[in-house]
Design goal:
Layout (H helix, E strand, L loop, with lengths): L6 E5 L3 H12 L3 E2 L27 E5 L1 H10 L4 E5 L8 H13 L7 E12 L6 E3 L2 E6 L6 E7 L4 E6 L1 E5 L7 H4 L11 E6 L9 E3 L2 E6 L6 E5 L2 E5 L6 E14 L15
Parallel strand pairs: 1-2, 1-3, 3-4
Antiparallel strand pairs: 5-6, 5-16, 7-10, 7-14, 8-9, 8-13, 10-11, 11-12, 13-16, 14-15
């Protein structure tokens, strides 16, 4: 494909987005409108939800966490270039270099890793499943109020936890709230990070699991919130499982060699 035929959508509203649109033009790319985000109230959460007739760009440059989240949830056909203060995101200069490489079709530059990233569906059994890019948290509405949670893994093994909550994170979100809670950093393709929040026991585990996990609140009494990508989605009913499963995969460009983080950042605003 000639560079002039490569359609690039740049989403996000800050100054970096404007600069990156200029970089697309300078590299010979053609600016395009991004695909419309999926309407969670109407769409299926499976692969059929991202087929359709949407005019996706070849590359989607997503600037900032909100734009990255929307790009991942929409599951475009093209490759997402995340520009965000995250371990798997580019800074402004890195994004410009990645654009040049991808628009040139070069395979020799040491700028970009090509990976895939999961899109998760979160089903609490009470309504339409929602899609998520970073993390899913079940947590007590008031801090330092312990409850009991069951974590069931894909092969049927189950753990019981006494804690303020549990967080499940994708590789892209594993350097945020999950890591601050003691969860591991996960490389693309490595599964999901699962970590208790403020556990009651001084010796607790965190896990990396396959791309499916079930969370259940086992004790009545404390109000528990469901938080998806930092947005509170409502209360969690005791003994009603929350199913979390990868339902799509998105092509991603990430910085080769990784990127240092200045601080741990929470995507959970509960």
């Amino acid at each position: 494909m000639e560079p002039s035929e490569r359609r690039v959508a740049v989403v996000g509203d800050d100054d970096r987005a404007s600069e990156l649109r200029d970089a697309v033009r300078n590299a010979g790319g053609r600016l395009a409108e991004p695909a419309d985000p999926i309407d969670e109230a109407e769409a299926d959460t499976g692969p059929a939800a991202v087929g359709g007739e949407r005019p996706d760009a070849t590359l989607v440059v997503a600037v900032g966490d909100a734009a990255v989240r929307d790009a991942v949830v929409a599951a475009p056909r093209g490759t997402v270039i995340p520009v965000a203060d995250r371990r798997l995101g580019f800074d402004r200069d890195g994004a410009v270099a990645a654009l040049r490489q991808l628009l040139d079709g070069s395979e020799t530059d040491d700028v970009v890793n090509r990976v895939t990233h999961p899109v998760l569906a979160v089903d609490d059994g009470a309504g339409t499943p929602v899609r998520t890019a970073f993390d899913v948290t079940v947590v007590t509405d008031e801090p330092a109020r312990i409850s009991e949670f069951a974590v069931e893994f894909a092969r049927g093994r189950e753990e019981s936890i006494r804690a303020d909550g549990v967080v499940v994170a994708t590789p892209l979100g594993s350097d945020g709230y999950a890591n601050a809670a003691g969860g591991p950093l996960v490389e693309p393709g490595g599964g999901l990070a699962v970590a208790p929040i403020a556990p009651f026991s001084t010796r607790t585990d965190a896990w990396i699991t396959a791309e499916r996990v079930r969370l259940t609140v086992e004790r009545e009494g404390e109000p528990i919130a469901l938080v998806v990508d930092g947005e509170r989605r409502g209360a969690v009913e005791p003994h009603r499982p929350i199913e979390i499963e990868a339902v799509d995969r998105v092509a991603f460009a990430t910085p080769k060699g990784g990127r240092e983080r200045a601080d741990r950042k929470h995507s959970n605003n509960s």
